[in-house]
Amino acid sequence: MKIWVRNCLCFAILSTLVGCVSSDGDEESEEAVGWTEDAIIDGVATKGYSNVGILHMAGDTVCTGFLISPRVVATAAHCIAYGAPLAYYTGRGKPVSTPSKVPSISNLTKHDVQSFKRHYNYKFGQKGARYDVGYVVLAKPQPFGPLPYGGTISSKKATTCTTVGYGVNSWTHGEGTGGVRRRGEATAKAKGSDEGYSDIEVWAGESLANNGDSGGPIICNGSAVGIFSWMKWDFSGKVYRNQYVGTDGTVKKWLDAAVADNP
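-> structure tokens emitted (263 positions)
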């Protein structure tokens, strides 16, 4: 028997650039970051991906988010359902055992939050999440080129994609270190949903996301096609599946409106 759980918005509670890479001055060597091994779960600490950052919420919980415009950061709805975003940080960060303490992590730059919103149809239940998408509006526009979003991938043939996030690196749920931006390569497939957007799935053996990666992008063919929503693990605690909310269809329309309303 296997159990599922949403990928907690944080490290504190139980419960992801092909194209458009810009520089934020975080070009130090990988050795300078302090760790280059097992990653997002099996990727590497990375430079680039400046438009992917870490969100620090009230209660010392954290998530990943990514710019879809100079001021709008897309993330998962469950990240902002239980705590207001205090700030958005960009930079490579550094691996730490308590990544929820974001303000103390080096190699990060703080950006003030003006407002935030989760999708009005967001709901989490025993069969998973629906419309697990939200956004944060920054007080000032950022110079990093935003990630394109709204692309789609095949439901029949696996697509090689890139996952990016600041979550913990261990295959075992709740263990490992986080707080450093990591990327990995994964193969993903899409399936339809009753909500008018795709569900994106990634299975074991790939660069799976873990706690703290919630809200991060999975980037396929140059587009952020999904937002990390939840994961499953078995009774040994090993993560074996990720689920992403597709940024196409009805989700794209909602995010497009957010971008238009917050120039």
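Confidence is low (pLDDT under 50) at residues 1-39.
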